[in-house]
Each structure stands twice: as C-alpha cells, then as structure tokens.
C-alpha cells in the first residue's frame, strides 16, 4: 500500500468504530458502573438487593435449566435436520426454506404461536379431549403446573431457534470436502462412524459459533417466557426488565445485566476453550 | 448456496436408484414431521388471528378454519395505538437498515481491500459484540437518552438495533467485496475513473444483491427485537414493545392477531433471501 492511500481504510472504519464505542462500549462501562454505585460511592448494595430478592434464585435456576435443556436439543435437532436434508434428492430448496422460516420469527411471536396451541381452549387440549384423555379444558401454563409451563417454554424456544443453528451448521457442512467421507466409505466405515469421526470434528468451528450464539441468546431469554407464562416463570432478563421498568430501580437492573453478561462471557470462553480448533485441522 | 442443489442432482440421481424405497419413504415421513413441526404453530396462530373472540373460545376446536374472516384483524388494527406501533416498528427497522449499511459496508470494504494496522483490533471489536447480550445494554442508555431527547423515539430504538445489526453487516459486506475481483476496479482506474467512481460504477452493481440481503437481515433483526425496544419506549412503542405491554390485559384473539402480524413480514423476507441465507451465515459465523 502506498502512503497516499493509507488513510482511506481508517476513514472507512472510523464511523463504525465511533458508533460501536458510543453505543456498545460506553453503555457496557455504564452498566458495570451503575451496578456498583450506591447512595454514597461504590458499594455492593445493588447486588445485595438482587441476591435478596425472592425471585433471584428462581430466576437463576430457571434460566440455567432452560439453557441446559434447550441448547443441546437444538444442536442435536439441527444436526438431524441437516443430515436428512442432505439425503434428499428432490425438493431440497423448498425443504430448507420451510425449515428456516422460524429464523425470521421473534421470540415474542413464537411464544404467541405456541400460546394458540397450548391455551386452555387451545388445540392441544382439543386433541386430548377428542382422544378421551381429558374431560374438558385443562390449564398447562399456570403457576400450579410449573413443569408443563417449563416444557411449553422450552418447546417454543426449540421451535424458534433451531433454525439459526441449522443454517450455521449447513453453511459449515458445505465447507467439508465430500472426498473425506467418500474415502472413509471405501475403507468400510459405517455411516455413524463417518459422522462421528469425520463430519463432527470438521464441523467443530461451526458448532462452536452456533453454540456461542445460541447460549448467549438463551441467557437473554425473555419475551417467549412472558408470552406463555407471564410472571409465573422468572428468568434473569425478565427480572432486569421488571426492576428497570416497573420498580424504576436502575441499579438493580444493571446488577442483573452484569450478571447476565458475566455468564455469557464465561460460556463463550468455555466454548472457545473446549471446542478450539488448531489451524491444521481445518478442512 | 442452496442453488448448488440443482447442479448435484445428476450425480445423486444415479444413487437414488440404489436407495431402497423403504428408506426413502422413511426419509420423507421424517421430513413431513419436521415440516409439520415448523408450520403447524404458524397455522394455528393465523387461525387465532382471523378467528376473533368466537374462534378463540370455541371448544373443542377443529383444526379446520371456521369463523375465519378479516374482521377480527381489522378490529385489532383499529385499536388505538396499534397502527402507531406498527408505524414505529417500520421506522425503527428502516433506520436500522440505513445505519447498519451506511456504517457497516464501508468497514466491510476496508477489511476486504486494504491491509492496515489495527485491522485485527477492529475485527476483535466486532467479534466482541457477539459475546455480549447486546439488547441488555439498553438499560443504562435510558438515562442518557432522556437527557438527549432520544428516549421514546423510533430513532433512539434504531440506534440500539444498529449495534445488533452492524457487526453482522460489516462481516457480510467484507466477504461480499472480497468476492468481487480487485482487477475490475483497477481496470476502471486505468480508464480514468476516480476511486469513488470505480467503486460506484463497477463494484456497487455487483454487490447490490448481497447488500439487499444484508439490508433485509438488518430489517428483520430490528423488527423482531423486544427487550431494548420495550426499555426505551413508553408512548411511541414499537409493535413488539406494544404487544409485550398489553400481554397481560388484552384478550387472546388480539394477542394472536399481533403475533401473526409480527410473523408475516419475517416469513416473506426469509423467502426473499433464501438464496443468501447459508452464504451469509457461513460468513457471519466464522
């Protein structure tokens, strides 16, 4: 690069750097600062109030449980979908389009779609009634039925966000040369062995980014929970929302935000470590 | 990338002769189950949206459309605040598209065409955004937005949504521009074009479809976002924020109508960009 042109790239990235500094880095620091500020200087008072709240341990428990159930199922389901689609001879485009529709659906809308199925006079109850299993409308989404409420939320999340995992995995699968698998087949490797020994290791970078994306978003889960269960199922982001908007206590809301960020960062670091790929292992 | 299927068909056609028909039946049965899994909830929320009060409380329900008409949807749109919320959502999403392309595409071009010091630091900044729950960052912005007069405006909401869409736009446009040979531009310079003219007349037309796909993704990201929009608005709510607010008190058929309106554009958009879906995510998830 000649010295005459060297200022151009900086001019090109400058607007986005300034923007990210103003609306990503500054609020990040602000959140941390806000969470540690009390009436007189630095204090842990916000964290104490957060930890002392009745919903706190429930929110932690629910959010972790939901993430631990939803994310592995999504990855497994997406792998099954990707494998099945790759076996199709005809109609692959339309199959992929249908399977990726939920990608464009917001968590709020996903919650509402599953509400239409699971509400008291909804389609699930109608089907169970027709089969003679229940005598009349049954509530699945109340405080008295925590497990079916949990299952409903998990289902809606799996329904909505498996598509993004599928897209990332298929994009990754397209980078793996067919020859590897064909060679293994010639040497007599069974389909399961080929999948486990060849596809899966080569898919590691894609799996890693899908897992990071999904886990960070899973700890942010909020609207789908509100659409299905209202306040009956406390989650971390929901508590942050309540403290900010209803209790007008920005400090405790910030403490929740810092907690969610810390968990997300820890999860990202974990995935980067566990699923790291050495450059020579790339396809 | 899905377009590749048509090219591989001749090769797989030979194999399909050997694939036992029982296995093929099993495969299609499985696919049918997956299609139903994806489509059935959308179908039911549509029935709920067009079924009105009567449809929602009918017991037991039939899975076939009954009581369906446009009247319940019109009723929902006529509720005070709904139309305004729809408008706010469109404005916020439109501004998000404009900002994320205007800020992201130049950065993508710089990453694609120049080797410069700080390049890796910039990439790190972009990737760093992915490890954070970005919508949560709307929380501390409430105070400064009130001070700046940005609170409770679609413009303010679009700023936070741009943080979500910008890293995506920068990475995708980078690979988009890398796919356009540098020689095309250099040829234009030789013929007397300035750098800007060469970019505008040669690179831009080639990059346009990919840029359009990026824009659509930015639109969907903003259209669907709930948390930040709910934190940063009170009266000028976006549609998601409005629906979240009325969740507890509104009747079911209004909620389903709102859910259906949220789903509709996203489904159409995904259809419009289906060709780019895998290319875009392959890049964005590297």
UniProtKB/TrEMBL annotation, chain A:
Location of the ABC transmembrane type-1 domain: 60-271
Chain ranges passing through the membrane: 12-36, 56-82, 94-115, 147-171, 211-229, 249-272
Signal sequence annotation: none
Gene3D superfamilies reported for this sequence: MetI-like
Organism whose genome encodes this protein: Microvirga subterranea
GO CC terms of this entry: plasma membrane
Topological relation to the membrane, as annotated: Multi-pass membrane protein
Alphabetical list of Pfam families matching this protein: BPD_transp_1
Main localization (coarse): membrane
GO annotation, biological process: transmembrane transport
Protein name: Carbohydrate ABC transporter membrane protein 1 (CUT1 family)
UniProt-listed PANTHER family: GLUCOSE IMPORT SYSTEM PERMEASE PROTEIN GLCT, TREHALOSE TRANSPORT SYSTEM PERMEASE PROTEIN SUGA
InterPro entries on file: MetI-like, MetI-like_sf, Sugar_ABC_transporter
Localisation: Cell membrane
TrEMBL record, chain B:
Transport among keywords: yes
Pfam families to which the protein is assigned, alphabetical: BPD_transp_1
Membrane topology according to the record: Multi-pass membrane protein
Transmembrane intervals: 25-50, 90-112, 124-146, 158-177, 198-223, 252-273
Transport is among the record's keywords: yes
Gene3D superfamilies cross-referenced by the UniProt entry: MetI-like
Start and end residues of each ABC transmembrane type-1 domain: 86-273
GO CC annotations, alphabetized: plasma membrane
Biological processes annotated in GO: transmembrane transport
Compartments where found: Cell membrane
This protein's UniProt keywords: Cell membrane, Membrane, Transmembrane, Transmembrane helix, Transport
Classification via PROSITE patterns: ABC_TM1
PANTHER family for this protein: INNER MEMBRANE ABC TRANSPORTER PERMEASE PROTEIN YCJP, MALTOSE TRANSPORT SYSTEM PERMEASE-RELATED
Record family assignment: Belongs to the binding-protein-dependent transport system permease family.
Protein name: Carbohydrate ABC transporter membrane protein 2 (CUT1 family)
Species name: Microvirga subterranea
Source organism phylogeny: Bacteria, Pseudomonadati, Pseudomonadota, Alphaproteobacteria, Hyphomicrobiales
């Amino acid at each position: 690069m000649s010295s005459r042109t060297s200022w151009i790239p900086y001019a090109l990235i400058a607007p986005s750097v300034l923007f990210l500094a103003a609306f990503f880095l500054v609020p990040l620091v602000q959140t941390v600062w806000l969470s540690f500020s009390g009436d007189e200087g630095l204090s842990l008072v916000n964290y104490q109030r957060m930890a002392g709240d009745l919903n706190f341990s429930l929110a932690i428990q629910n959010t972790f449980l939901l993430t631990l159930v939803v994310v592995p199922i999504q990855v497994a389901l997406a792998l099954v979908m990707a494998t099945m689609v790759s076996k199709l001879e005809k109609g692959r485009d339309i199959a992929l389009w249908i399977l990726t529709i939920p990608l464009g659906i917001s968590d709020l809308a996903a919650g509402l779609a599953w509400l239409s199925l699971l509400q008291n006079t909804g389609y699930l109850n109608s089907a169970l009634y027709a089969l003679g299993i229940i005598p009349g409308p049954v509530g699945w989404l109340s405080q008295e039925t925590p497990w079916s409420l949990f299952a409903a939320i998990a289902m809606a999340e799996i329904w909505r966000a498996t598509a993004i995992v599928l897209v990332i995995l298929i994009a990754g699968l397209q980078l793996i040369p067919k020859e590897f698998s064909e060679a293994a087949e010639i040497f007599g490797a069974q389909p399961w062995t080929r999948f486990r020994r060849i596809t899966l290791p080569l898919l590691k970078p894609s799996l890693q980014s899908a897992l990071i994306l999904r886990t960070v978003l899973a700890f942010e889960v909020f609207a789908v929970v509100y659409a299905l269960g209202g306040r009956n199922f406390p989650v971390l982001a929901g508590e942050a929302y309540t403290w900010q908007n209803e209790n007008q206590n920005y400090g405790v809301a910030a403490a929740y935000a810092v907690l969610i960020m810390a968990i997300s960062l820890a999860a990202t670091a974990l995935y980067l470590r566990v699923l790291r790929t050495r450059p020579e292992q790339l396809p | 990338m899905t377009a590749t299927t048509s090219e591989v068909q001749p090769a797989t056609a030979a194999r399909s002769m050997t694939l036992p028909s029982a296995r093929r039946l099993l495969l299609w049965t499985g696919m049918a189950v997956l299609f139903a899994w994806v489509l059935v909830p959308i179908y039911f929320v549509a029935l709920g949206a067009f079924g009105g009060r009567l449809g929602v409380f009918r017991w037991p329900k039939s899975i076939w459309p009954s009581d369906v008409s446009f009247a319940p949807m019109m009723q929902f749109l006529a509720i005070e605040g709904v139309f305004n919320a729809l408008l706010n959502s469109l404005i916020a999403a439109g501004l998000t598209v404009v900002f994320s392309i205007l800020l992201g595409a130049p950065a993508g071009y710089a990453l694609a065409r120049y080797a410069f010091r700080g390049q890796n630091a910039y990439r790190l900044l972009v990737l760093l955004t992915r490890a954070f729950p970005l919508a949560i960052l709307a929380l501390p912005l409430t105070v400064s937005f009130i001070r700046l007069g940005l609170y409770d405006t679609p413009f303010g909401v679009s700023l936070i949504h741009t943080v979500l869409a910008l890293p995506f736009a920068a990475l995708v446009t980078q690979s988009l521009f890398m796919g356009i040979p540098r020689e095309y531009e250099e040829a234009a310079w030789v013929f007397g074009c300035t750098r800007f003219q060469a970019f505008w007349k040669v690179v831009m037309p080639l990059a346009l479809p990919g840029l359009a796909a990026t824009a659509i993704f930015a639109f969907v990201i903003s259209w669907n976002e709930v948390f930040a929009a709910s934190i940063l608005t009170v009266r000028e709510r976006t549609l998601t924020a409005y629906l979240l607010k009325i969740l507890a008190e509104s009747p079911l058929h209004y909620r389903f109508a709102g859910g259906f309106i949220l789903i509709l554009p996203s489904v159409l958009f995904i259809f419009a960009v289906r060709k780019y879906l895998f290319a875009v995510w392959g890049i964005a998830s590297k």
